Amino acid sequence: MNDKVRILQTIRQGQVGGGESHVLDLIAHLDTRQFDPVVLSFTPGPMVEELRARGVTTHVIQTERPFDVRVWGQVEQLLRRESIDLLHAHGTRAFSNTCWAARRLHLPIIYTVHGWSFHLDQPALVRRYRQLTERLLVSQADVTVCVSESNFQDGRAFCDMQRAEVIRNGINLSRFSPRETPDPNVRAALGVGPDTLLVGFLARMTAQKDPLTLLRAAALLPAHLPVKFLLVGNGELDDTVRAQVQQLGLQDRVILENFRSDVPDLLQALDVYCLPSLWEGLPLGVLEAMAMGKPVVATAIDGTCEVITTGHNGLLVTPRQPQVLADALHQLLISEPLRASLGRQARRTIVNGFGAETMVRQVESLYRRLAQPTPVMAFSF
């Protein structure tokens, strides 16, 4: 083995979502005296471009399918060519397409679960199939990392989690820190005046993140309330979101933006951050907004409940309830003191328990442990 441990960080896509932000932060804070990161993404995108700009060796093997046997040989060749010592797979798709090759080469494996691939929203048969898939993948990992206690407990309900542990997501506190003098040009460029309140949704436009419930809630707010909604992101619901804005008559109240990399500047421009997800691991978007000192309205699900105490450092609401969400938003929008109080407590929560440095040191401890020679489990698909 070389002096440095060469680690392949693999993730499903090059578009930047929560898991991809996690990988970016992990690599940025990794001790490069001990560890040499290489990245494999299964689609191109901004994450790939950013990593290459940083000088990180980054590869793309194109597939959008889990268990795509067509790419497994390419993955094995990559592992050999890059002299990889350890595989760290982020998410189901990435692990399902790298597990076979890593096991053939007797490499230690870490599987980080950024939210399980099964959830209550799925038909029973689909949910059961996904659980069996996850059970298989967990069985092949030397260590499974859950980013929230909720995900860990969910895993225990359907598979052996004896080799699993919880390492909560962490935030780059220097990048996500409230600005003393916010840049007024950000709001001006969005067409938002100084007397207008701005609610932000910075997430993928997917069923999981549920932007449609946010739009329905926006339509329920009083017409005289000086508020606009900024939705930033892309996904399979792009066309549906645009159509619903038109159907609800929200053209003057909603601003739609494609993915943007200036997330801290956008968060700084907000008065309230909202994430009405149906399921999560531990949502980085919520952590980032809280780190910026923003009051958050989010759904009472999974890892979100581990970071937000409603009424203390944010507000939690029931998923898929537009009126309940509208009421919570209204409560914040009409009270500047409440927004300020929740925002201050939100920042304290992140500083005290969700820094990226702490997260990375815990992950590095796993790397050091697994880099030592250990018996290899038999591979069985």
Kindly provide the radius of gyration, computed on alpha-carbon positions and rounded to a whole number of angstroms. Answer: 21 Å
CATH architecture of the largest domain: 3-Layer(aba) Sandwich
* CATH structural fold name of the largest domain: Rossmann fold
Identify the overall geometry: globular
Q: Would you count the extended β strands for me?
A: 13
Kindly report the name of the CATH homologous superfamily of the largest domain.
Answer: Glycogen Phosphorylase B
Structural class by helix and strand composition? alpha/beta
- How many helices does DSSP assign? 16
Q: What is the residue-mean pLDDT, rounded to a whole number?
A: 94
Instruction: Enumerate the spans where pLDDT stays under 50 for 5 or more consecutive residues.
Output: 374-380
User: What sequence of helices (H) and strands (E) makes up the elements?
Assistant: EHEHEHEHHEHEHEHEHEHEHEHEHEHHH
Helix content: 40-55%
CATH class of the largest domain: Alpha Beta
Determine the strand fraction and express it as a percent band.
15-25%
Instruction: Give the spatial strand order of the biggest sheet.
Output: 3-2-1-4-5-6-7
Distance between the termini: 28 Å
Number of domains: 2
> How is the biggest beta sheet arranged?
7 strands, parallel
InterPro entries: Glyco_trans_1, Glyco_trans_4-like_N
Domain Glycosyl transferase family: 187-348
Domain Glycosyltransferase subfamily 4-like N-terminal: 16-175
Protein name: Glycosyltransferase family 1 protein
